[in-house]
Write a structure and sequence with these properties.
This protein is of the alpha+beta class and 156 residues long. It is built from two helices and six strands; from the N terminus they run αββαββββ. Helices cover 21% and strands 29% of the residues. It has a six-stranded antiparallel sheet with strand order 1-2-6-5-4-3, with helices on one face.
């Protein structure tokens, strides 16, 4: 039974620091896999409360992590990056959920995938308007709802 089938199903457990380390490591892995560099100073970390289907918010410390970092890779490389991620991550247990190749500032590159085993989500996409700010490549990860180890899971 998956998390979505039973709202009281046991959540995966991980310390926030470990989740953040995984997020940093995985975005670095995606960049290495595609041959682009990351700009570490652009990294953003967002720990968010998990919100249930009926807008319930537990008070047991559960969280989801959204982490992203930019790459200065030129837009001429964005489609190649998307193709590489689609090919490689599909072979590593990820299901591609969104895919679009870069065409122009209005039809930018989008790649999203979900790990079939643990529901971690990864994305790469073109960000920036190209008019008032340069277009860059963003690598991001989002964890499923997780609980710190040793905490009793609140039931609904």
């Amino acid at each position: 039974m998956s998390q979505s089938d039973d709202r009281n199903a046991p959540l995966p457990r991980m310390e926030k620091e470990a989740a953040l380390k995984w997020a940093k490591d995985y975005t670095e892995y995606m960049a290495r896999l595609t041959g682009v560099e990351l700009t570490a100073s652009t990294a953003k970390v967002h720990f968010e409360a998990c919100v249930g289907e009926n807008d319930e918010v537990a008070e047991d410390g559960r969280y989801s992590l959204f982490y992203y970092v930019y790459s200065p890779a030129p837009v001429t490389e964005h489609t190649r990056v998307a193709k590489t991620l689609r090919r490689e991550l599909s072979q590593q247990g990820y299901e591609v959920t969104s895919y679009r190749e870069f065409k122009n500032a209005y039809t930018s590159m989008i790649f999203s995938a979900r790990n079939k085993k643990n529901s971690y989500r990864v994305t790469a996409d073109t960000v920036g308007s190209g008019k008032t700010e340069p277009q860059e490549l963003s690598f991001a990860v989002r964890t499923p709802c997780m609980l710190p180890p040793g905490v009793k899971q609140q039931q609904f």
